[in-house]
Amino acid sequence: MRYIATFILSFLFVFSGPSLFAQTGDAFPKIKNGKWTGALLLDSSALLYFKFDVTQKEDGTYRLTVMNADEKIELTDLVMKNDSLHAKFPFFNSKFVWKVTKKGLSGYWQNLQKGENYRIPCSITYGDFYHPLRFLSTFYPPSNIHGIWEATFDPGTDDAYPAVGVFKQEGQWISGTFLTETGDYRFLEGIVLADSVVLSCLDGAHAWMFTGRMKGDTLRGHFYSGKHWKGEWMAVRNENASLPDPDTLTKTETFEPFRFTINAATSEVTSSEFNFPGEDYKNKVTIIQIMGSWCPNCLDETRYFLSLYDKYHAQGLEIIAVAYETGKDPAQHLERIKQLQQRLNIPYQIVAGGTSSKALASEQFSMLTDIISFPTAIFIGRDGQVKKVHTGFSGPGTGSYYTEYTEETERFLQELLQEK
Question: What is the mean pLDDT of residues 397-410?
């Protein structure tokens, strides 16, 4: 079966179908509407598949959408340069570059967050046949992976860390994610074939793929992060699997009112340092979000915090985001922060903290123990004291875990807002 699957993967990646485009020189080509299948060649034996949708708008332009389970990401800034189509991810510094030919789209995904030369070969083929291994399901009925799994990444090494796998399976199709102490792996989707499973996600910041095989009561497999990382993971079914309480991983060891100073420019492009507390936050309930525009879990948390701000700002809720950005150029940091602020229409203060370093964040927030994750959220009461620190974020891809967190957070905020 392994050799059959390898053949199918290789065949699809170089598949040559009928003409799907009307090539018009440097003008934008006519692209066939409908469902497509994309594939990233991570290495010689690993293809990451994703769903892709093309819709032509009324004005003649196109909507190109990458789909990861319930997540839909519309690509932006579609332009033709010479004979190549460039399409950017909206929130992260990455893009597709494809040659438009009679065979389809062929080129690469470029993750500029990891450098100009970080490119992974990519092809897009017309047709909704994600994942190609599904055609073998008649001969190899799927195992039952549905449920909660106690997982370990890099088992048996000094870098081992715990996780919880949460999977929903319908026949051969499977979706879900892994939760860790510092966040989740977002919207994974894939297929179960006999005793094997493949899950993947392409969100613009990461290209993640998980392969696994059931042996007895244990799943074992490999985890790919783009072309630069390949590790191992294992999991056993455990409906009671859990992780340490994220409200206990980072703490404050003082009863003094919380304060911090960021000696950096803000998103308002001023050079003055930012100090907390200040008059604008006096007698307010304040959430301080330690984050970065490059971080998918931070993006999920920001969207949630926006809903909290809309709902509770009039009752006295304030939010301050402190962004730690990749690279060393402060001007680029500010540009990325402003782009995030504009795209999400963020009404509250965002401060540029510096380079994306947990050590730097820990130094600047010296009233806390170590910052171990982007994001980290600090909840401050009206009296100026820290009420709790929440490490990581369980986003909407985690299902009931996300629902439980949002419900508990709203109850907690309502209690803080009622205090005088």
Answer: 96
